[in-house]
Amino acid sequence: MRILITLCLSILLLRSGGFYGSGVMQPLQYRYSVVQVYPHDSSAFTQGLAWDNGTVIEGTGLTGKSSLRRVELATGRVLQQIALPANIFGEGVTLFHDKIFQLTWKNKILFVWDSTNLQLLGSYPFPRQGWGLTHDNRYLIASDGSSTLYFLDPETFQETRRITVYSGASKVESLNELEYAKGRIYANIYKSDSIAIINPESGFVEGWVDLSELRKKQGIAHKEAILNGIMYDRINDKLYVTGKFWPKLYEICLLPPEES
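The structure corresponding to this sequence follows.
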């Protein structure tokens, strides 16, 4: 099993989608296996996840209930928690250079926190709705619910470039929570059970992962109990997913498509 875990994400670097005759990329349909299951706070409206040296940084949403948390992976226990102001709807988070960056939905504010003690370092204007947030070790990468991803300078928050995301010949709308892993951007799609694996240069979706079976296992009727939350442990090469109000968080291993 450990060999499988080591290789599973590396497969994505070796295999990418092919092209139609028109030059449009055809995404691959990846499979997955569940490696480990962990408890997760079922009251958490999960908007973003980030890995921090063995603990989970989680941003939650809903007006009046939004928070920033540090969570113990093995138990799901909240170790630290900061409540956002009552008028704030929290969104995606990412950890970069010992700072936690956290978006807000319609408030057009970007919060920056100290990753060691969750103390607020500053709040900055953000020019659009905030949805998902990650980084590629150089730039912050943000989504706003459209088909566009924005690359931002982590010091000035000025846009340096943007890409439009396509799956085949169609734009992919409702890009939500983001994670950067092994040179690709992983994106939740709002109200979808799938994760898109995006080339950060071209914007083409190189692969899809259907996680509908994981959502069904939650047994939650709430319409907002959707897949939302992707986290990558770069040191140990582990990928985690969860959803809003989900009682479980999963370590998964991505597997190549079945041969036809």
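Confidence is low (pLDDT under 50) at residues 1-6.
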